[in-house]
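Example record

One chain of 366 residues, shown exactly as stored in the release files.
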Amino acid sequence: MKEIKKIVLTGGPCAGKTTALVKVIDHFSSLGYKVFTIPEVPTMFTQAGMNYLTDNADFFYEGEKATLEIQLALEDKFVKMAQACRAPAVVVCDRGAMDISAYMKPEMWERITAAVGTSTQQLRDERYDAVLHLVSAADGAEQFYTTSNNASRNEPASEEGLRIARLLDKKVIEAWTGHSHLRVINNNEDFDAKLNRVLKEISNVLGLPQPIIEERKYIVEVTGTMPDCIESTIAQTYLVADPGVEVRLRRRDWEGKIVNVHTTKKKLSGQEEIVTERQVNNSLYESLLQQADPYRQTIHKQRKSFIWRGQYFELDTYQGALDGLVILETKGISRHQDVKFPPFLRVVQDITGNHDYYNHTLALRR
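Predicted structure tokens for this chain:
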């Protein structure tokens, strides 16, 4: 039976998901794919009479439990339908199972998942091939923020509403943190650029060749207090590979949780490459380490991930032989668009496209 890729399209309020879904259907249908889209289940439930703001704890529990059960059932049925298609197919979910957890206390989420016969690890780490989070317009694109296009949206269209929307945005990202292919899609002055980033990430999951794009990278100095962020420890090891192919093994550790990802980058030309990622368990991770490139050392770094004015940043502080090097990276910002640097960082040097600062180069033993 053929493998069907299942992708979650999520984000904070007024992030552009609805428009993105239309774009995804149109683009990949034109490439010969049958695109199945799973509707947003909480919206269906709200329209059917569910009140997610109720103070009736029993009613809330039963509603959220039913929401998760229907979410999983819809996904499973559509995957079977996709497997029966003669044409290549992909399943895109308008939000996924872990989105549900962002709207309740952890204790209730654990109670619900146990009752349904699943767990956070299964739902977050094993169920989906990719999670694409579109940043809410409430963070960095406030002029485009509105609640008028979604009758089920509960946050008010005001300064308080913007604050609530930003908080929900953060909670949803935290809920999915740990997934091996979580991508945060920045707000962009050109909304089409935001949509094109979605198409690019889905194309990567489907193994379609993509243009090589240099992400914006800077050597920086931390000069002030960091905002709330997601902190993790990363160990990145490069494996022996054929010419023109880069293979890396990454272990990410945060809050006592560990995720291992095996990534292969293959250049087709100077302009195109194919990137494939897969999550591996601890035993396979240890086995693959035996293939480590003897000419390269393992890179160790502390990462802080955060959103600032609608742009997603990763701040890496290197350790060991690279101690003292601090690199800021942001993705999905077009060349003509300015980076909205946070006031607590000072840019020392723009290293975008500088091969000397690629991790593959930094790993070389001196």
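Notes: The longest strand covers residues 257-267.
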